[in-house]
Amino acid sequence: MKKLVLASVALAALWSCAIVGSSAFAQASGQAEGTSAACAPPTIKDAAEYNAYANATSQSSPTAKAEAIEAFLQQYPNSVAKKDMLVALMDAYRGGGNVPKTLDAAKRLLQVDPDNLRALTFVVYLEHQQSNGNQQMLDDAAQYAQKGLSAPKDPCEAQADYDKVKELATPVFYSAIGADDAAKKDYKGAIDAYTKELQSYKDPAQTTVVPALLDTYYLGNAYVSLDPKDAQNQKMAVWFLTRFAAFAKPPYQQQALAAAEYWYTKFHCGQNDATCRSNPPQGFAQVQQLAGVPANVFPPAEYNPSQAPPPPSPADLAHTAIVSSAGCSNVTPAPPPAPPAGSAPAAEPAAAPAAAPAATAAAGAPPVTVPPDCSTSLKNMALSDKEFILSNGTAADQQVIWSVMNGVTAEVPGVVISATPDSVQMAVSQDAQQSQKADFTVNMKTPLKDKDVPKQGDKVTYIATFDSYTQNPPMIILKDGEPKAAPPVHHAPVHHATHRSGR
Predict the structure, then answer these.
(1) Structural domains of the chain sorted by starting position, each given as residue range(s) with its CATH number in brackets
(2) Which residues of 165-194 are buried (b: 16+ CB within 10 A; e: fewer)?
(3) pLDDT at residue 493 is higher than 80
C-alpha cells in the first residue's frame, strides 16, 4: 500500500513567515497595553525608579527598549510595575524579531501572572513551532494551551480587548493540542482538537491559508491513521486531504492530491472496478469541486460518496476454491455474510479453550458427502491451496478438503524452523517461509540419527502421511515421516583397454 509522507520540516516552513512577525502576534501584543479606565497604572514613589521606568518605556527602538527594561527589572526586581514591564518586554522582543527572548519574556510574565492570555498565546505558539518533533516541548505547549482555553479575563482589561485576543488565541491553542495528540498517536484526540480549531475561525476564508490550512492536512492524516478504518473515518480523511490540496501550493498540493485520490479509490472503488479506478478516479472531480469552496470547511450534505463493496473474505476465497473445482459446485454451503463495516465484533469468551495440538479443526461439523469427481479434482489441488482452505475455510469446507488429505502419504518439501530426532517443524507455504513460521509438523516413523537432524533454514523433503491439523494457529501434522531418499548416483561404465603381448 502506498502511503503519503509529507516532510514535516518542509511543511512547517510554510509557517515560518508567520512566527513572531504575524499580524496575530502584533494584535495580541498591542492589545496587551490597553486597559479599562477602572484600573489606574501603578504608582512608583521612588524618583530614581520612576526615572528608570520612564526611560525604558520611552525608547522607540525595540532593541533599545528591551535592553532598558531588562536593566530596570534587574535593578528593581520587586517593582510594583514588574508585571507591566514584563508585558512591555515581551512586546519589545517580539517587535525586534527575537524569538528565544520573546518566549523567555512570556514565561517570566506567566510566573507573575499565570493566567495572562497574551503570554500563554506566545508560549504555546512558539513552543509548538520550535518543537520539531520534541515531545517534551509539544507536551509543554499543550499544557499551556489547555490553561489558555480557560484563562479568565483580567479585571483591568476591557472586554472587547479580551474577546479579540481570545479569538486569535483559540485556534493557536487547539493547534498545539492537536499536534501533541498526533505525536503521541492519540488520533481521536487530535481529530477533536483540529476540528475545534477549524470551528473556531469566524471567517471560513481563514481556513484556506496557513496555519489553518496546514492543520486541515493534519486533520485528514489523523483520520487516515485512526483505527478502525471504517467508512466514516475514510470519508473524512478524503475530505480534509482534498481540501488541503485545493488551496495548497506546489509541491504539497500534488502530494496531498495523490493521497486524497488513493484513499478515495480505496474507499469508493471496488477491487476490480477499472472504470472507477481511472486517473483521476471516477467521481473525484465532484469532491474536488466541493472541497474547493472556501465556505465548505467541513463536508456539506452533497459530499456523500458511496462505499465500495467489501473484498471477499478469506473464508469466501476458500469456499470459492472448493466450489470452482470440477464436480464441486454445490458440495458445501456459502459462508455467512460478513457483518456490516464498522459494526461491533461479537463478544469473545474471557478465556477461549486452546485447541489440542493434534485436534482436527473441523471436528463436529455436519458430515459432507463428496462426489467422486469432486474428490478427484480436489486431490489434484495444489498443497498450498489445500492449506489455505484448512486455515481459512468454514468447517464444511475444511471437512471436504480434509477428506481427500487424511491418511494420504505424500512428499512435503519445506524450510526447517526447528527439529528434534522425533519431529521436524517446517515452513511450507510461501507466507510461512517469508514470516519464518512453521505451518507443517512431520512426526518421524523412527527417530532420526543425530547426524540426520536438520538445522534451522535447511531445505528438506519428507515422505509422510497426513494425520491431523489445527486451524488456529495453522498447522498440518503428518505421521510416519521419513527423509526422501537421495536419487541414486549413476557412474559411467569404465572401459579397460585390451593389452596384447607383442611377438
Answers:
(1) 8-184 (1.25.40.10), 312-335+369-403 (no CATH), 409-483 (2.40.50)
(2) bbebbbbbbbbbbbbbbbbeebbebbbbbb
(3) no
